[in-house]
Amino acid sequence: MDPERKVAAEEKMREWCVALPKVELHAHLNGSVRNSTLLELAKQLGDKGVIVFEDVKDVIMKNSRSPLECFKLFDLFHILTTDHDTVTRIAKEVVEDFAAENVVYLEIRTTPKNNAAKGMTKMSYINAVIKGLKAVEAVDVVLFDSNLRTNETLSCTPMIELDDDTKKKKIYVGLLLSIDRRETTSAALDTVNLAMEMKDQGVIGIDLSGNPVVGEWETYLPALQHAKELGIPITIHCGEVPNRKEIQAVLDFCPQRVGHVCCLNDEEWKQLKSITIPVEICLTSNVMTGGAPSLEMHHFADLFNAKHPLSLCTDDSGLFSTSLSNEYYLVAATFGLSKSELFQLAQDAVQFVFADGEVKKSLRRIFKVAEKRLMLPAEFAAPN
């Protein structure tokens, strides 16, 4: 294929990946903030003397950041999200951005924060997030509770037919409350109890995340066991670093889903595949943080070829300058997946959502409609 035709084919595939309805199961609220918003808010903090704006300005404006530059922004995220109005704004914009990429189901994970100086409690923080979700106007946001019943205060009809662009689209959104690995057992239990208390307001699950080299499994195990006893779905960051003891403990705990799984040894891979825990795959994130040596050597291929349940995700779309559409394109371009295989990959993710059968049925209807529009026989093959 000549260069011009190749570029045209690549662009056409990118457009197709945007049009594809998608399910996002691993998106951190803080790391998904828009660069333009991050720049504006950082400038305000600089004007107030809270940070030195020039120290972060160039990093924010970059589209491709080094791992060191990415980690530099984490501290900024934590400062920004100690303000209720900022949290509300970020939540609103994050949903709008995912909806613009034709994400039809979104689970956002975030760590509830306490900040006495700002009058912020874990509950007020989550209320600020929910306020942002309800402020979205570009699309209809459908929240549902962790009893897996659609929230009656919002419209719960299925998303409109994709071939009728005049109607307003819908996006299903659920919140996962994250236990930070730096937290105490007591603080982790508080987060689980908060998830139970807010199950009728859009909170549908628990996540364990944070710096993978910090903390001990035994510290947050009581909270995770408590969540399991309460029937709250759980997803856990697993194998971001080669911590043999914790990886084994996570696999033995058997959560509903795991994220990343970059650093498993042969025996751990064998166990993961035998118990078929769905994996949240974050290609760009794993390469940029060093969890995978390259896209070509990413463990996606091994899991995909083994027909292991998995879902493509962004992790931190703003931080890593990616989108869920781009993650699907990368899979096609790197591993040669056809449009048919990409479509099936996106559709299969419906099985792993922390939602009830009615929501899953609605999502499957969306994919059925989209299949008629997107899956033309002549376009099944991936571009060369």
From TrEMBL:
Entries under Gene3D superfamilies matching the protein: Metal-dependent hydrolases
Pfam hit, one: A_deaminase
Domain (Adenosine deaminase) ranges: 21-364
Essential cofactor(s): Zn(2+)
Catalyzed chemical reaction(s): N(6)-methyl-AMP + H2O + H(+) = IMP + methylamine
Keywords tagged on the record: Hydrolase, Metal-binding, Nucleotide metabolism, Zinc
Keyword Hydrolase in annotation: yes
Organism annotation: Eragrostis curvula (weeping love grass)
Protein's GO biological process: adenosine catabolic process; inosine biosynthetic process; nucleotide metabolic process
Family: Belongs to the metallo-dependent hydrolases superfamily. Adenosine and AMP deaminases family.
GO terms, molecular function: adenosine deaminase activity; metal ion binding
Protein name as catalogued: Adenosine deaminase domain-containing protein
